[in-house]
Amino acid sequence: MTVLPDRTLPDRTLPDRTLPDRARVVIIGGGVIGTSVAYHLAHLGWTDVVLLEQGTLSCGTTWHAAGLVGQLRASEAGTRLVQYSTDLYARLEEETGLSTGYRVCGGVTVARTPDRMVALRRTVASAAAYGLECELLTAAEIKERYPLIRDDDLVGAIWLPGDGRANPADLTQALAKGARAGGVRILERVRVTDVLVNEGPGRRRARAVRTDHGDIEAEIVVNCAGQWANAVGAMAGVNVPLHSAEHFYVVTDQIEGVHRDLPILRDPDGWTYVKEEVGGLLVGGFEPEAKPWVAPDAIPYPFEFQLLDEDWEHFEVLMDSAVHRLPVLAHTGIRKFYNGPESFTPDNQFIIGEAPECDAFFVAAGFNSVGIASAGGAGKALAEWIVAGEPQQDLIGQDIRRFSPIQGNPTWLRERVVEVLGLHYAVPWPNREFESGRPQRISPVHDRLVEQGAILGSRNGWERANVFALSGTSRELTYSWGRPVWVDWCAAEQVACRSSVAIFDQTSFSKYLVTGLGAAAALNMVCSADVDVPTGGTVYTAMLNARGTYEADVTVTRTGADEFLVLSSAATTVRDVDWLRRHLPGSPAPTVVDVTGAYAVFGVMGPRSAELLGRLGGPSVFDASSFPFGTSRELPLGRATVRATRLTYVGELGWELLVPTEQAAGLYDDLFAVGADLLVLPAGYYAIEAMRLEKGYRAFGRELTTDINPVEAGLTFACKLATEWDFIGRATVESAKAAGPRRRVVSFTVGDPAAYLWGGELVLRGGEPVGQVTSAAWGAAVGCSVGLALVGPRDGGPAAPAWLRDGDWSVDLAGTRLPIRVTLRAPFDPAGERLRRGDL
């Protein structure tokens, strides 16, 4: 390891390290994230805040960050967060008197391949959806923007004039000064050695931090410790899944023609980025296979303004690519090689929020090399969360509760980080699956799925069948912007489900038991729909926050007088359980038990599903007229005992079978054995996705987020507004209903049956951007791409039915405008006759 005095901060007198006995908030970590949280807490009026840094400000990973500030992100929420950062950095110098080094210089991203060019065209459309300036460049125009570039092998590029760069150390100091001006106390060279937690009955809660200079009592502890955040989390019993990897860049000697306003250059097909640095170039990148550093609990101390040893052999793939793109580098000297470790998360999204394992313990860490761009917005978002008690914007994709405990395994993290860093500049295929660290969780019929030809994906560690390959074809999941080969296989599964019967392994569903006296009343306060139904009744419902927006989207089955079974998506297990445990009223509150691993779930769906199940359980048992929609029964089925619930997420007659794990394989075999003459097919999650979109069924995290309310989602039928029952968010929903929606979730179909949409496409009305596709797939029943979109007038007017009905609607598919039909009703079977067939 080497120490680099040329990038350290100037020597200065250390502040007083005398610790206060207590503080309202203690922040651990004095990098750009910790100082941003402190700054924003102060600006929200929370002045009793102490920030502790084990070395000096920015000395960990912040100081050697490249400092790129690119505004456009994969989602609107992520883009807004970075846009706030740029606004903050632009005005921070005037406020504090300290420069942040922030400079808007624009950015050029080039494409070497047609696939990359499609991705860039989609980026331009996303920018239009977010109101961000972005334009396509031809090869000739690239040379105008970046004269040093070799352009003979480029397909095209995009220009983002709002991109910029900041000096990480200067930015940190400016945020720190702004925080101090607001009353925050910043103590350097104070190392946290433990987090003290109340361990009595009820929920665990952080109460103090222990340092090498004494203890500080705290109402709230905030972990902004960068690559040390995993170890700090462990002090409080909190899972913070991240792992450090070596991250490389070089700074060259000065180059003629390089000036302060030279744009940032990104060549993702060559894995590299380039920016101006003191008249030379900073050349870095994200190599396809990363080099992990030490385990999270083995990071050395002290580690202040230090780098790792040079590794020119590992950096060679990046440098060769950079020389190819910028030939001037072939005869330019290298001033310094930087190998600085940075932490990366398992899914390439940063971590933010209050820990589910410990109240009053918040985390902001794992910024995956985008910490400088994200710091302003992330610091504001977490400060608002701390003050309000819940997030004030959509952070579902970054929320710490998206991870299960198994994803904190250090061996698994080390394997995953190699892939994660390398995916930064990979083509962003919308259906990309991680390949490393699999499998983690498998259903009891996993071997059957593989034998049947399943092409597997992964969600929250669960291996799941995306689609089933035809016999003799490749099991590899192919990626394409057009219509992939597996769409035909998926269409066959859809046809089987619509015409006869299909079986889905949905074991990855999250499953919780809510039990105890007063469980019905408590759940009714948390759930938007009335779940106080007779035993055996099943209710579709939301769980909303105080802002009336979505925290969960679940089904609730009453299984006893004081017992309820809650089913939710695979990705939200920790999040849902945490929300229930925090918000269920009562003293004592009902108990919430996660039973996800105890049961498998099989969806038996299609017009002949009752016939198939009747062969194992008796024809009269599954007679649709005597087993109404929305009812659930425990009964024998073949040799197994199951809970059969008549529900559907595909819009057909069908049942979800909850079966004990140890009985699942036998039941699965029996279902296929007795259904052979019905031409029963196994079907995967791609088929579920397509069929739910044909029915206009919403999904949490896409159509239903913490920025969307039931009025906008078109789901007020799942809110008990006509009853006297109160529920969290009711008043806000009522106000939104009275005011009318300013945007709506709508269904659409594409006029061109050959067009293939993935989601994320720009939606236009009369040629003007009005929203974005949230989900899309190819629907066999409608014979075209079908999806859901969130749209609304740009002038803030109401998204009235006439506005939706009378418009000239289209989508932008990588630069091509395609007419679409927009509707508030389901494109397929809008009256819901098929899912209720056989009912009296």
UniProtKB/TrEMBL annotation:
Residues 389-443 form the FAD dependent oxidoreductase central domain. Signal peptide: none annotated. Residues 743-829 form the Aminomethyltransferase C-terminal domain. It comes from the Bacteria. Residues 24-385 form the FAD dependent oxidoreductase domain. InterPro entries: FAD-dep_OxRdtase, FAD/NAD-bd_sf, FAO_M, GcvT/YgfZ/DmdA, GcvT/YgfZ_C, GcvT_C, GCVT_N, TrmE/GcvT-like. Residues 445-721 form the GCVT N-terminal domain. Pfam families: DAO, FAO_M, GCV_T, GCV_T_C. Belongs to the GcvT family. This is Putative dehydrogenase protein.
